[in-house]
Design goal:
Largest sheet: none
Distance between the termini: 67 Å
Shape: globular
Number of strands: 0
Oligomer: single chain
Order of helices and strands: HHHHHH
Structural class: mainly alpha
């Protein structure tokens, strides 16, 4: 096994480290969103989720940068990162489904409120 590690190129080692950091970012984000109080007000839920995202990205900036460098549509960085993290959480984080549904519920309620004024 030592021979394999010794023969790996620096780019392979960096690539593995970045993938490992991306996994850590998603796992940390999953743990945080799993602790969101879904019974709280819409504003509180949104603030908690935003805090989770901010903390995870601040703790794993290389992973976030790597995700943004992936080929894709010319969307804003925030939108692209949100899409990629959402897809990763959908695949790996059981708690995310309930949080995503709660955020959609909050967003729909806000749209209804705006439409009635």
């Amino acid at each position: 096994m030592l021979c394999l590690g010794a023969t790996a190129s620096p780019s392979t080692a960096q690539s593995t480290a970045v993938r490992s950091d991306e996994k850590a970012l998603v796992e940390e984000l999953c743990g945080c969103v799993g602790a969101v109080d879904l019974a709280a007000s819409n504003t509180t839920v949104e603030r908690q989720v935003r805090g989770c995202l901010e903390e995870a990205v601040l703790r794993h900036p290389a992973a976030a940068r790597s995700m943004l460098e992936r080929p894709g549509a010319g969307a804003s960085a925030g939108y692209k990162l949100g899409q990629l993290l959402g897809e990763a959480l959908d695949r790996t984080c059981e708690a995310f489904g309930a949080v995503r549904d709660r955020l959609r519920q909050a967003h729909d309620a806000q749209l209804l409120k705006k439409g009635s004024t």
